[in-house]
């Protein structure tokens, strides 16, 4: 039974609130890309790099951020990181080039990593082992998954009042609140987890090289049509060489960044694949965002407001999952519920891809997606950490981050974009071949549209061109909708596949075992 003193509840809430702005440094401008691109007037390729680089900088700094957060006094670190975050965040507003904007955003994302771990340390020390790890992971995922949608909505709302700079000022206000909370809750300026500082600098350098290589693939892969370009093939080969060098490096290092021995634990090997799988099926949200913005013409605020319905599912599923895991339910049961919800989400949206869809039609699918996130994210995080010694804790965490975020979300989204483009071209070619005089429906529509333009005073030639352009635009819209349908129909089958495997092979018919306190549950 978990017992917490009455006065500790307020402290617990305050400590968790302190973590929220650090989790959302990049989420606050998630729907403002078009405004930022227009502000700097750069090419889409340059802007693609500026979007990817802060994320990769954050992930690359992750292992070093863990060590730093354990070494420095907490109060000094939180205050310093908050002040520096305000400076970097504000500096990004006054840059005149996309390069410096990217630099300041990258520094901000690096500072956020230190802030996340520093704010989590007192929670772990104060409420564990009395605070069961299933409950802690549940709360952490509740805050992480819930706050990102709220921050995206608030950021877009403030942007709509003036421009994208308002959302940045909103984040600064959050950091000021963090400074106040740090003065309230951090009474003693100590480093409770401080130890001998040891870090695998050589392994970190190799990881940065690998991330740089994957960054190039994410930014350039689709525009270079992947393996049809020799630079892409060279980048893939270079990445494999780096992985080989790193494996060799671990054999001569006492405490490597990611110890391959961690994969001797079956739950790490399976859990890392599970992280990749969940990241891949969750990454199709970019398809819906493209559908809302490019086909339906939703403005960013409308899109952000529509996505808020996911919070309903998240707020139901994560507390329920936390309770069930705490009560030692079979993990296979939670997996089945999660993958079933993901399958239903993709299958329902398969029938929603048509022009002029009502916003209310997105409510049910998004609630179901929120349920899927709530069932799978805490469970997969706990499963990956089950029974792993503290010495290998950082290794299993980094393996999960690389599988889910780097390979599935970042690289996977770039590959998904190529798949959509290819499917769109295929459907557009097929539909365009039907636009001929033998297609009476197309011919009648062409004549009707042409007559409309003739009545507007256009010449015969101009009316013909405008009518053909209108028909071509309709064909393009139909093609992209068919491409979206293809992706979501395939994904619905991919989501239901684990359910069949779990049932047929009777997997996960046991509760979760012991999970160590460290590393920090992110």
Automatic annotation (TrEMBL):
Coiled coil: none
InterPro entries: MFS_trans_sf
Annotated membrane topology: Multi-pass membrane protein
Keywords, alphabetical: Membrane, Transmembrane, Transmembrane helix, Transport
Keyword hit for RNA-binding: no
GO cellular component terms attached to this protein's record: membrane
Keyword check for Electron transport: no
Entry protein name: MFS transporter
Transmembrane feature ranges: 7-26, 46-66, 78-101, 107-127, 134-154, 166-187, 199-219, 231-248, 268-288, 308-326, 333-354, 366-385, 397-420, 487-505
Cell compartments where the protein resides: Membrane
């Amino acid at each position: 039974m978990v017992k917490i003193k009455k006065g500790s509840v307020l402290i617990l809430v305050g400590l968790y609130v302190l973590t929220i702005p650090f989790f959302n440094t990049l989420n606050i401008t998630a729907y403002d890309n078009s405004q930022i691109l227009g502000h700097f007037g750069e090419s889409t390729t340059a802007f693609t790099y500026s979007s990817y680089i802060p994320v990769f900088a954050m992930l690359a700094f992750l292992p070093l951020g863990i060590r730093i957060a354990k070494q420095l006094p907490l109060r000094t670190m939180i205050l310093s990181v908050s002040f520096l975050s305000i400076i970097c965040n504000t500096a990004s507003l006054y840059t005149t080039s996309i390069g410096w904007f990217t630099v300041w955003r990258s520094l901000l994302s690096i500072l956020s990593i230190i802030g996340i771990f520093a704010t989590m340390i007192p929670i772990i020390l104060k409420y564990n082992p009395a605070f069961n790890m299933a409950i802690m992971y549940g709360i952490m995922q509740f805050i992480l998954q819930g706050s990102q949608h709220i921050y995206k909505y608030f950021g877009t709302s403030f942007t709509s009042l003036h421009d994208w700079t308002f959302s940045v000022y909103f984040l600064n206000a959050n950091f000021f609140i963090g400074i106040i909370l740090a003065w309230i809750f951090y009474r003693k300026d100590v480093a409770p987890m401080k130890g001998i500082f040891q870090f695998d600098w050589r392994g970190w350098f190799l990881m940065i090289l690998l991330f740089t290589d994957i960054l190039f693939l994410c930014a350039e892969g689709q525009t270079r049509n992947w393996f049809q370009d020799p630079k892409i093939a060279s980048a893939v080969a270079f990445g494999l060489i780096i992985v080989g060098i790193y494996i060799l490096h671990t054999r001569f290092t006492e405490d490597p960044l990611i110890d391959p021995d961690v994969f001797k634990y079956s739950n790490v090997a399976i859990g890392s694949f599970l992280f990749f799988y969940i990241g891949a099926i969750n990454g199709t949200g970019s398809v819906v965002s493209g559908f809302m913005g490019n086909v339906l013409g939703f403005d960013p605020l409308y899109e952000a407001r529509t996505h808020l319905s996911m919070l309903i599912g998240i707020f139901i599923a994560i507390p329920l999952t936390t309770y069930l895991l705490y009560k030692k339910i079979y993990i296979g049961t939670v997996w089945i519920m999660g993958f079933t919800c993901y399958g239903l989400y993709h299958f329902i949206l398969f029938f929603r891809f048509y022009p002029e869809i009502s916003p209310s039609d997105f409510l049910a699918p998004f609630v179901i997606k929120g349920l899927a996130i709530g069932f799978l994210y805490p469970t997969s995080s706990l499963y990956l950490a089950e029974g792993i010694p503290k010495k290998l804790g950082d290794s299993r965490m980094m393996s999960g981050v690389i599988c889910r975020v780097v390979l599935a979300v970042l690289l996977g989204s770039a590959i998904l974009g190529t798949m959509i483009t290819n499917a769109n071209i295929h459907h557009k070619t097929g539909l365009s071949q039907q636009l001929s005089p033998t297609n009476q429906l197309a011919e009648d529509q062409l004549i009707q549209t042409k007559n409309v333009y003739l009545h507007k005073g256009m010449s015969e030639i101009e009316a013909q061109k405008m009518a053909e352009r209108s028909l071509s635009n309709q064909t393009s819209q139909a093609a992209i909708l068919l491409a979206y349908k293809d992706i979501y129909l395939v994904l619905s089958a991919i989501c239901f596949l684990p359910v069949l495997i779990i049932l047929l092979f009777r997997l996960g018919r046991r509760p979760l075992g012991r999970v160590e306190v460290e590393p920090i549950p992110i």
